[in-house]
Amino acid sequence: MQQDDPGGMLGQCAGCQMVVSRHLTDEDDVVELDRRPAPIGMVPAGQRWHVVGGGTAVNVGWAEPGETVLVEHRHVCRTGTNSGELAALRSLWSSPADPIEAVLPLPFHVETDEQLQEELRRQPTREQARGVGCPRCHADLGHPCNDPRGQARAANHKERTTAYRRARWTTWCPQPSPTASMSRLHEAGWESAPQAPEAAPTRLPPHVRDLKLAPAARADPQTVQASIAELRRLARAGAAQRWSGSREEP
Questions:
Q1: 163-203 pLDDT, tens digit each
Q2: Strands 49-51 and 57-59
Q3: Residue 3 lies inside a defined structural domain of this protein
Q4: 158-172 helix and 113-121 helix, angle to the nearest 10 degrees
Q5: Cβ atoms of residues 167 and 136 within 8 Å
Q6: DSSP state at residue 223
Q7: Same structural domain, 65 and 124
Q8: Are 28 and 84 found together in one domain?
Q9: Stretches in the chain below the pLDDT threshold 70
Q10: Are residues 160 and 194 in the same domain?
Q11: Which of 45, 86, 149, 203 could in theory staple to 75 by disulfide, Cβ–Cβ 3.0 to 4.6 A?
Q12: 105 in a structural domain
């Protein structure tokens, strides 16, 4: 387990087979974060996660307007049923009706982004490719491809191998299309959502803002803990300011 990896240690959701990032929180708990950046307008305070130096996940409940945040995967998993306040985000990213392709589980040795990319580029075996149907001869899952006379072939059609590699990508690392995303964002009311809580945020100090992008090797433990404390102080200050403002007479 590589705790010094800013991207966290990779794991796999048992329900949808998507690759997730496992991080230690500042309270030494383990949280599984979805790897897709979420627009802040669709994530309520209290469910917004940042990853700071050393791969530590921090839930500050606050972010700058236009910034993206991370969310717990269990709230947006397409096989789950308890999305709560993240139902609109889950609808944006995927539909529970989407088929889950019969791709192999993530190999145990894959723990980093580099290893994941290498595995995605790997040529599938003949049996692995038969985890999806053949788009050329319409052979079913688990069955060999057929030649023009209907006889079983020893090798798969190249279209089937390509289809499996595509299924492996979309299952492990799904990415919504930009056009569909923006359309469904508009339908979800994101553009017209009230932005009052984020109208006048407290700016993050440069040393805290830069820490989120700095490699773990340049972030010593004392700096990480000090920055986490600063993030939490700013979050509390922003929340108090918004609360006091809501009590003023119009």
A1: 999 889 888 888 754 444 444 444 444 443 333 333 334 34
A2: antiparallel
A3: no
A4: 160
A5: no
A6: H
A7: no
A8: yes
A9: 1-7, 63, 82-83, 94-101, 176-250
A10: no
A11: 86
A12: no
pLDDT tens digit sequence for 35-55: 999 988 889 888 999 998 888
Same domain, 55 and 122: no
Instruction: Return the residue matching tokens 């999305």.
Output: 83
In this structure, are 29 and 82 located in the same domain? yes
Helices of type H across the chain: 87-93, 113-121, 126-129, 158-172, 178-187, 206-211, 221-246
Report the amino acid identity of residue 165: R
For 27, other C-beta atoms within 10 Å of its C-beta total 10
Domain, as residue range, for 66: 9-94+176-246
- The pair of structure tokens assigned to 92 is 């944006």
Instruction: Name the residue type at position 121.
Output: R
Where does residue 161 rank: exposed (0-12), middle (13-18), buried (19+ CB within 10 A)? buried
